[in-house]
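User: what does the whole thing look like in 3D?
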Amino acid sequence: MSALVALGARLVRAGGRLRLWSVVGGCAVAVAVLATAWSLPDAFYPVTDPTAVDPRRGPFVSLSQALAVPVLALVLTVGRLSSQVRDRRLASLRLLGVPHRHVAVVALVENLLPAGTGALLGIGGYLALRAGTTLVLGAQLQAPIGLAPARLALVVLAVVVVSLLVALAPLRRLGGGARAGHAVSAVRPPSRWRLVPLVPAGVAFALLLSVEPGTTDPVAAPVLLGGVLSGALGVALVAPLLSYSVAGRLARSQRLAPALAGRGIQTQSVSIGRRVVALGLAVYVVLGGAGMVGVLEGRTHVRAAIQQIEAGPQAIHLTGLDLSPALEADVEQVAGVRAVVPQYSVGPAGCGAGEPAPACTLTVFVGTCDGLSARMVVTGCRDDSPAWIESDLTGYDVVAVERPASLELVGEGGRALGAVDLVSTITQDVPATARSWVWPGDADVFVPVALAVERGLEPTSALVVADAGAVVRAQVNDVAVRYGAQAHNPYLSDYQEVVATRTVAWTLMGVGIGVALLAYGLATVDRAREQRRPRARLVALGVPATLLRQVGAVQGLLPLVTTILLAAALGAVTTAALSHYADQDFAIAPRVAVGLIGATTVGALLVTLATVPLTRGSVRAEDLRQE
Amino acid sequence: MPEPVLRVRGLRHGYGRQEVLRGIDLEVYAGEVVALMGPSGSGKSTLLHLMAGLLRPDAGEIELLGRRIDHLAERERSRLRLRHLGFVFQFGDLVPELTVVENVELPLRLLGTQRAQARRHATELLDLLGVADLADRRLHEVSGGQSQRAAVARALVHSPAAVLADEPTGALDTVAGEVVLEALVRAAGQTGAAVVLVTHELTVASWAARDVQLRDGVISDPRATTSAAAGQHA
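Assistant: Here's the predicted 3D structure for the full assembly of 861 residues, as structure tokens:
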């Protein structure tokens, strides 16, 4: 046994420095990222009371867990680097007559040393990430970032075990021993069984799409989870099949470059597919994550907050004063302020103690038509005529109220204001109002300000309708403070939570893409190195460098594009099902989807370009010799 | 006096501080089979790669068909290599993604020959080398000797001025090696190509008209640098 261990230790460098340091680095990154991801939900949304868990914790936990997918792909990728050389070494042991289980021991030792070293280094990486995250996001943390030692040990163990399983995987092909790695010319079509994961994924998403939108179904969550996992498996397994299929068409081309490239992909579709699997999974996961963020942000009150703070108009409340004409005039001078609308404390009479009358749900707006128009899009408003405001609120959760021709009103402190005759009707354009404010305007009755003044009413506060932005908000507040008042937008706290969620979600998604690009980069460099010898032989024959570059470009881009398209398509289906279940429109804005897919693709292209020098260099003497 | 197909003069080349070739002069004529021999590390393969324009010499001149190639750009050297040279490596090194006949027709396709014409020519050559029945097979479906004969066909299919063979039988048994060498020399004789064989086996060298022994980076017998019967190659 000690001889086997010693042999395994000697073989650690057999795959070259790239493989050695990639396994060390890959496992270190895996532990650091997984441990950090596991610890973040408790730092952002700690569970102090199991009955009052922050609703954002669930999606956050899901997103953190989803990071395991590209991380797993990274461990898989680095474990299979230099596979040709490594597999040949192990096959030669079988040729010598070393029993299969002994070869397995050698393979385990060969992988355990770098994987274990990397995993332990990953603890340091986790501590560094923890410190960095605390430094950057400290203000948004509700508890210190931390992970129990047992959990950290579990992460280390899991990464090492996965790495070892990857190391053992090729051994089953060495059963025959001698021919391992020799039949590189054999076309091995990926099995059609690879399509199987798409079936449960399709069924799960079809089920979710058939559920009545907005209903709560206890089966939905496990169905969604199953669908997402099957979808991820589908991306990993189907991508090589897709590349193989497209390459088949290229292989039949009359032109040499596409034909050679197509043949190359066909003979190595699985190993080429493995190179891009992490990217495909990353695209799928981040699209799912973006869909989840989209669903969270698609809730009406969150949309209203985002609309007010990012797009405008925003409604800034001035409180703590009796509104003076001087204050109103000064606020109106602030750049970006569209209107200052005095607010009166007026409501229907008879809404005190006892059973409230249906009319108590009515909201009375006292002011001018201009003031009303600042808050909602209306037609038929006259400054001399009290009126009902009619709104088509179909689809909104409102109680229909009888509309008498006259309404008794009371002011602040229940002071009777007498009746107003509501002889006319104002019509609110609800969709147009919602386009500006998300919510429809909430006033049901319009009372002209002249009538209110006539009955001794004075404004109790004011609403400032202004453009979006923190600057105008701050300037309005500066003016208000001068008059002993305060200005605030009640949606600001909602929006700050949106920002916090976005920061965390996009950071996690960025980490996912980064990990995937790392895996892709290492695999691309590895492939470029493995291709140096065959490429040198073709150069020796006089094959033009342009042709080799064209072949290389097609072989690099085709699997990349097909995998990303497949992942994007499955991600879109997943998001569609999630959005439907949440009773929302498609939860990812086109620009977000294009941005995510574009960033991943551009990143992959940059990584590919970075490896070009490895394939463009002049032929080295050692490339022309046999090993 | 005919012009040699390949001529090197004062060739020097090293790897790092180690100088492998220290002033080589050599001429190879059309139709001639020359064996480059010597112990491991004597610089045989390096000389072959220099003659093919794959490596740049540290000093000296290399001429292919009377034209200096050592100072040409890689693109130009590659073009000359494709047009005028054929290569046979120890393990054939055919393109694994292609069938046998597709490998053989590859140089012709790269030179712009129509596919049908290239296929016909490649098949004829495979027939000449006795492996025409393997034309449509992939490389994992043929033996080492058969693969090497296909490599010979690929090296000759475009009627090159010279075929450079680096240990062409090194991976074969004696019988298969004899078959490959016989095929190479016979086919080269028919096309008039010069053949440079790198080998350390005397049995392989016996197929050559001239042995060039390399030792410590120089040709041990100066008389071997050019053909004694150069005048006969007119």
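In plain terms: The radius of gyration of chain B is 17 Å. The first strand of chain B starts at residue 6 and ends at 15.
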